[in-house]
Design goal:
single chain, about 200 residues, globular
Length: about 200
């Protein structure tokens, strides 16, 4: 997941695109463009650059129109996005590119079941651990709640919130199909450092 504001630079978008290119080259499977306040034109330019950056699947947060225009692999839906059920109906009508994904952010078992019923392809569940970026969604859920969600639905569940190298394995043991993080993948100083992190995480899966 991306967060250009954490880069603290006037050239944040350019730096962010470089980070995306580095992550794709390092073997990160999916990259979610999570720049909610970025104007549409700039978001589209960033998403297109990310799609062209490498083999990682690019998912655009909230903006279905931008995801389609950029040729992204899918859209990730939150509380203020188009409802997942509407996106599912739109896909069933044959409007979506082949393999186009729709994911949903969930913060409870009820949310997860609703997303599955609505036709989502995967969910994010969290925050699993404490993290400032997810404080608005309440206290950390913990791996027990994560395991409950993973056992209750058939969709792939991606753990999010305070994920690092030390606790990623706990999420996978709980049944998560993968992990999502900002700092873990955005903060490494160079490509080699990120490559080592990705290799260690893949070794845990």
């Amino acid at each position: 997941m991306t967060d250009r504001k954490a880069l603290g630079s006037d050239a944040a978008l350019l730096i962010l695109l470089t980070k995306i290119q580095t992550a794709a080259a390092a073997g990160v499977d999916w990259i979610q463009i999570r720049e909610k306040d970025l104007p549409g034109r700039e978001l589209l330019r960033l998403a297109r650059g990310a799609v062209e950056a490498g083999s990682a699947r690019i998912i655009v947060n909230d903006r279905l129109d931008v995801a389609l225009a950029a040729g992204a692999a899918g859209v990730h839906l939150g509380r203020e996005s188009v409802p997942a059920a509407e996106v599912a109906r739109w896909r069933r009508a044959g409007n979506a590119p082949a393999g186009f994904l729709a994911g949903v952010s969930c913060h409870s078992l009820e949310d997860a079941k609703e997303a599955e019923t609505a036709g989502a392809d995967y969910i994010f569940f969290g925050p699993v651990f404490e993290t400032p970026s997810k404080a608005v969604f309440g206290a950390p859920q913990g791996t027990a709640a994560l395991a409950e969600v993973c056992a209750a639905i058939r969709l792939p569940v991606i753990a999010i919130g305070g994920i690092n190298e030390k606790n990623a394995q706990d999420c996978l043991r709980a049944g998560a199909a993968g992990i999502a993080a900002i700092r873990l993948f955005q903060e490494p100083a160079d490509a080699a450092a990120l490559q080592r992190i990705v290799e260690r995480l893949h070794g845990q899966g």
